[in-house]
Write a structure and sequence with these properties.
six-stranded parallel sheet; three-stranded antiparallel sheet; mainly alpha; DNA-binding; about 1250 residues; Serine Threonine Protein Phosphatase 5, Tetratricopeptide repeat; Arc Repressor Mutant, subunit A
């Protein structure tokens, strides 16, 4: 226990984690604060008195990546916890409980102060008692440990959450369940089976997937003389496991079930016998020492044939497949109540060569026999379906061998196949037989070997799909997972990686047993995770002790030599594949070979038809046939691919068997098909787009054009990787015309859907191709497209450089339209960097050319760019809206859905400025629908962020937040950091104006970091300004002034007068906080003048409040320029009140609830100061309604406090007390870091209210 001299008299500190996180000093409950502060305490307590590094503590509480504000917030939480835990300690004296050292924070409360630690120690003592044979002591210790939990159903750490704490909660829950199992086991060891049955029934219901509870219930019921109920409990558990997980109970419970069926004497408890309590290992409790469990009656061995090959010690993985084969097969073949056979089962294991079919069959067969199933006869036959030097085995000959083994003399074996099959079925009748047929060729070879009756399993192994066997259950094997493949290499090489067992009581740092290293995983990957290849690689490594795993990985890296490396002692992957390949007819062989020339990830019947030069139907038949042979894979309907190693094998075959001319012709057919298909898809999405002049080829067969924009998008998404690969392949072949066509056709989709890197790679190939041709216009087009992709990736400086280069190339080529396109792209890059004046000039020059050449789409894009420039630099919103309306009409005319949607969204923003929030929301909903039709996720995010803005002003903050969050997710998914920063800036603004300062600051700082990485200066200016306003509200005046000045300087450089006006107002309020009302008046006046000049009513209302505050604080007279004269309203309280009234009127007109609430609040305070209480109450209640509507809890509490003071001064103490209580309740619900005092108010009737905080 840490020392606590000051508070020792009050009693020791105690903490609870087994339920809600709680703390006591003696019998007094301590308030550990907000959930995240309690999370800090919980993580430190889980450290068990060990130091927890600050970075680890931050990750454990906030997750990764942690927000920027996490460290300072952590320091606040630690300070608050120290005050709670040691209230009498002076701030400068060292803490005796929560300390900091170079190693981290330590919360030292001693071994008995944490219930979770006491629980784990109690469980350990209980287990030790059972190990000594002390069942009574074990039951007592475990029962006492379990009593420490808050309640029977309460989870640990129930009121805190984080990734780390959730893991700890799960760990403690698992330990609790295990302790319950062991306590019940101890009670059973003591003969308390009657007492535990009701509890076990509840536990089985609470933990339906924990087999041990079910086993304990079965044992308890059996010992109560309820054998039927015990068997029923087993059936219910098995049914539940199958329905929930598709698996059967484990071997221990199945064994117990068999012993209950057999009424095994070992299940009866004899407390007088020594060693009876040695039952720590499962539900077979009460088995006397030295007596192993007896075999089930159904497992009694008889004389018979046992031909199974030796089980393979290197077997790895396949747990699910084994459960399916062993568990379900055993149940289907045996009646679990009587132990008698139920009929013949046919199971097929199929998969490609080398996937481990035979190994799985051998392991499953041995497990079935070991469990007492099919114990009479086990037959094995190699059907040689894919033998290199012999034909497939004749089923008649196989039957002859089986009959001789079954005791039929040679002279009595019939000659005819049907007669042999009938005699074979007769000899197996009534026997529990397992027949394994390896390497089956087809159904006709297998069908005569089917048993007829009895409890028989026919297990068939084949490389080919055997779909014609009635009632057969098929297990299809895929290659291993990476971890399984790595584990097989370890097993084969007999090498072990160093590791460490995790600690018994993990705290913040839990050493993990290392997984496979990178080199091992790389070897497994280069083997395609194919078990045969992986095993051969492991054996190769075992025979080369001087090689490291990295050495082997390097040898396997080269595609052309990989299959040669996968060979040991005459066994090769090549040979295994050859057996399948050489069994094919020539058309399928040719298809198998040529498909390896496809450079992409997979193919469809359409693209494969182009590659093979065959019609679609013939091609699909070939693909399906190869799929049945497991020489192709299909992970999605209508899409086919080679396994990686089969691809290498097929590649070698096509180079050996097909001429270079044939291979080149096939590849070019595929390339031309992709060129035509990609151009068709882009034209469907962008009807105004035209290819770069290359003639379309007579691809065979011609691709079918997509029926809709959605179909085009779906095709481009599916074929994205293939388009990139084919583009690279055409460059390698020197077919630069195809390279240019593919790059140009695909780049718009790739750039729009967050595949900018892929797009850039293709466009650079296209640019190289254009340079080789010497065509300046095509070079300019490629450079221009590269610039547009950079712009979409937020690299606006690079975008501008490329557009300038494209402009020069187009001018040199004499391409007027190319010049206009480059200017349009340059204008877009300038706008993204906040250089709206230069952007407008470029769009103006482009507009003239587009109009002259009749390019309506180009005209629409230029008008849209001009509209944005007017909006930000001139403040002429009506003219800007007119330009956007014209662009809107032109986009609609040319069929550009995305452009139409974007202009709809921008017109919605114009409605927002004018206060038409319903129209703003309606426009953004229409835009969202259009963007969804176009499949444009970025556009959807833009529309949602605008819709959120409208919803917030309409008093629907929850809907607004939902739209903001979805917009943020979409921008992140599409890697649009510029859009992400914009949404974070808006979210930060909304949260700070509604009093959620901590969250708002975090969002604004994240936005600022994104702006620094993207060069988005406009959003940076707004973010600096918003962050300055927030710091001002938190009374961090010096920091606020620096941020506001930086934002003001940047907005002036950019010409963003909206942001400049907001920054000036922030400086005005800073001056007011620092006691300089005159400076406040000057800055507020400048802000108001600028807001009026750019027709910004939102900024105008804000600035009017600033002017009013300057006047009521003694800032002298304030004159504001209005039109040709000066708008002047005296000085002092009366003049300030008039400005508040004007602000309220403007804010109400444009429906700006936050600004109007501020104006009404100040009007109420002013009226109270001027002794007009009725008017003051009316304004304060209006402010209260507005703040409740936008969920501004902090503002609502402030207004209620003012209202309480007014009611008290006017002789209404009960009403005043009600408002004070409401304000206090609101404040108590606000996190401590979000609570700030009111701004100061000049001496007068309300002078004291600023500090009268509840």
């Amino acid at each position: 226990m840490g020392s606590d001299d000051s508070g020792a008299a009050a009693g020791p500190l105690r903490f609870a984690l087994l339920g809600p996180v709680r703390a006591w000093r003696g019998e007094r409950v301590l308030d550990l604060g907000a959930p995240r502060q309690r999370s800090v305490a919980a993580v430190l307590l889980l450290g068990r008195g060990r130091p927890v590094a600050r970075d680890q503590l931050v990750r454990a509480v906030w997750g990764e990546p942690a927000p920027a504000y996490a460290v300072p917030q952590l320091q606040k939480y630690v300070s608050a916890l120290r005050r709670v835990l040691e209230p009498e300690r002076s701030p400068r004296s060292p803490s005796g409980v929560l300390n900091w050292s170079a190693s981290g924070y330590v919360l030292d409360v001693g071994p008995d102060g944490i219930d979770a630690a006491a629980f784990e120690r109690g469980v350990g003592r209980g287990r030790a008692a059972r190990a000594r044979g002390d069942a009574e002591g074990a039951a007592e210790e475990l029962r006492a440990a379990l009593a420490l939990w808050h309640g029977p159903d309460a989870p640990a750490l129930s009121d805190v959450t984080s990734g780390f704490l959730d893991t700890e909660r799960d760990r403690l829950a698992e330990l609790r369940a295990a302790a319950l199992e062991e306590r019940v086991q101890a009670d059973l060891d003591l003969g308390r089976h009657q007492e535990v049955v009701p509890e076990l029934m509840r536990l089985v219901g609470d933990f339906p997937l924990r087999e041990r509870f079910a086993g304990l219930l079965m044992l308890a019921l059996y010992r109560c003389g309820r054998q039927g109920d015990a068997l029923g409990a087993y059936r219910r558990m098995r049914r539940g496991l199958r329905e929930e997980l598709g698996v059967d109970p484990g071997a221990e419970v199945q064994e117990l079930h068999g012993r209950i069926l057999a009424s095994a004497p070992s299940l009866d408890l004899d407390l007088d016998r020594p060693g009876v309590t040695d039952s720590a290992h499962g539900p077979g409790a009460g088995v006397p020492d030295g007596d192993g469990p007896p075999h089930l009656s159904v497992a009694r061995a008889i004389e018979g044939l046992h031909q199974l090959p030796m089980d393979i010690p290197e077997f790895i993985g396949r747990e699910a497949e084994l459960r399916e084969l062993v568990g379900e097969t055993a149940d289907m073949g045996t009646d679990t109540d009587t132990g008698t056979g139920t009929g013949v089962i046919v199971a097929v294991i199929e998969g490609m060569a080398g996937v481990g079919k035979t190994r799985l069959a051998v392991r499953a067969a041995h497990q079935l026999v070991a469990q007492g199933h099919f114990a009479d006869v086990q037959l094995w036959a190699d059907l040689k379906g894919f033998s290199p030097d012999r034909p497939p085995a004749d089923p008649a000959h196989v039957l002859e061998g089986f009959l001789r083994l079954l005791g039929v003399p040679g002279d009595l074996v019939p000659e005819q196949l049907d007669a042999r099959a009938a005699l074979y079925r007769d000899r197996l009748a009534g026997r529990r037989a397992l027949v394994v047929l390896d390497d089956a060729a087809d159904e006709e070879q297998v069908r005569p070997l089917l048993p007829g009756t009895g409890s028989c399993l026919l297990l068939i192994i084949s490389r080919r799909v055997l779909g014609g066997l009635d009632g057969a259950r098929t297990t299809r094997l895929a290659p291993f997972s990476p971890k399984e493949a790595a584990a097989l290499i370890d097993r084969v090489t007999e090498r072990e990686r160093p590791g460490a067992d995790p600690p018994d009581h993990p705290g913040v740092e839990s050493p993990q047993v290392p997984g496979p290293d990178d080199a091992l995983l790389r070897v497994a990957e280069l083997c395609g995770h194919l078990p045969l290849a992986v095993a051969l690689a492991g054996r190769r490594l075992r025979t080369r002790p001087s090689w490291s795993t990295a050495d082997l990985a390097r040898r396997l890296e080269a595609d052309e030599g990989r299959l040669r490396q996968l060979a040991v002692g005459g066994r090769t992957v090549d040979a295994a594949f050859a057996l399948s390949y050489e069994s094919l007819p020539e058309p399928r062989r040719r298809a198998f070979r040529l498909l390896a020339l496809h450079p992409g990830t997979d193919c469809t019947p359409e693209s494969a038809a182009a590659l093979l030069g065959t019609d679609r139907d013939t091609t699909e038949d070939l693909l399906e046939a190869l799929l049945d042979e497991h020489l192709l894979q299909s992970f999605a309907h209508g899409r086919y691919r080679h396994h990686d190693l089969l691809r290498l094998y097929a590649h070698g075959r096509t180079h050996a068997e097909d001429t270079e001319a044939a291979r080149t012709a096939a590849t070019l057919r595929l390339a031309h098909w992709y060129c035509d298909a990609a151009e068709d898809a882009r034209h469907r999405l962008e009807p105004w787009w035209t290819p770069d002049g290359c003639p379309r080829t007579a691809a065979h067969p011609r691709p079918a054009p997509p029926e809709s924009a959605a179909a085009a998008l779906e095709w481009l998404e599916r074929e994205r990787a293939n388009l990139t690969a084919v583009t690279e392949e055409t460059t390698r072949l020197g077919r630069y015309d195809c390279t240019r066509r593919l790059a140009a056709a695909a780049h718009s989709f790739l750039g729009l859907h967050a595949y900018g890197t892929d797009s850039l790679a293709g466009l650079h190939l296209g640019l190289d191709a254009a340079r080789r041709s010497g065509d300046l216009a095509r070079q300019a087009r490629a450079v221009r497209d590269i610039g547009l992709v950079h712009d979409g990736l937020g690299r606006h400086d690079e975008a501008a450089e490329h557009q300038l280069h494209a402009l020069a190339l187009s001018e040199e080529a004499g391409d007027a339209r190319g010049v206009a396109e480059a200017r349009c792209g340059l204008g877009r890059a300038h706008a993204a960097r906040g250089r709206y004046g230069e952007s407008g000039e470029q769009h103006r020059l482009a507009l003239a050319v587009f109009r002259e050449t009749g390019d309506r789409h180009g005209e629409a894009r230029s008008l849209a760019g001009l509209g944005l420039a007017d909006w930000f630099t001139r403040g002429t919103h009506h003219r800007s809206a007119a330009r956007h309306r014209r662009a809107f009409a032109l986009f609609q005319e040319v069929g550009d859905v995305r452009g139409h949607a974007l202009e709809t969204s921008r017109l919605g923003m114009a409605h927002w400025v004018f206060g038409n929030h319903e129209e703003c929301a309606a426009h953004h909903r229409r835009a969202l629908t259009l963007f969804e039709e176009a499949g444009d996720r970025r556009g959807q995010a833009v529309a949602r962020s605008g819709l959120a803005l409208a919803e917030w002003h309409l008093g629907r903050p929850d809907e607004a937040d939902a739209h903001y969050q979805r917009a943020l997710a979409a921008f992140r998914d599409t890697c649009d950091r510029q859009g992400e920063a914009m949404v974070l800036q808006r979210l930060g603004y909304v949260h700070w104006v509604t009093g959620r300062y901590g969250r708002g600051e975090a969002e604004l700082r994240d936005a600022l970091a994104l702006c620094a990485g993207t060069g988005n200066r406009n959003t940076e200016a707004w973010t600096l300004t918003s962050l300055g306003h927030l710091c001002l509200r938190l009374r961090r005046d010096d920091e606020a002034k620096d941020l506001l000045r930086d934002g003001l300087a940047l907005s002036r450089r950019l010409g963003d007068r909206h942001c400049e006006s907001s920054g000036l107002l922030g400086l005005a309020l800073t001056a007011l906080n620092q006691g300089d009302p005159a400076a406040c008046g000057r800055h507020a006046r400048d802000s108001l003048t600028l807001a009026r000049a750019i027709a910004n009513p939102h900024g105008e209302a804000w600035a009017m409040i600033g002017v009013g505050l300057a006047l009521v604080h003694g800032g002298g007279e304030v004159g504001v320029r209005a039109g040709g004269g000066v708008d002047h309203i005296g000085s002092g309280q009366d003049a300030g009140e008039e400005w508040f009234r004007r602000a309220a009127a403007v804010a109400e007109r444009v429906r700006e609830p936050h600004t109007e609430s501020m104006a009404r609040h100040e009007l109420g305070r002013a009226a109270a100061h001027l002794e007009r209480p009725a008017e003051a109450e009316r304004h304060l209640r209006a402010a209260l309604a507005l703040r409740r509507r936008i969920q501004d809890r902090h503002g609502e509490a402030e207004t209620r406090t003012e209202l309480a003071a007014l009611l008290r001064d006017t002789g209404r103490p009960d009403a005043s007390r009600a408002e004070e209580e409401a304000a206090s309740a609101l404040y108590s619900g606000i996190p401590l870091h979000d609570r700030v005092p009111l701004a100061p108010w000049p001496p007068g009737p309300r002078a004291g209210t600023a500090s009268d905080r509840p």
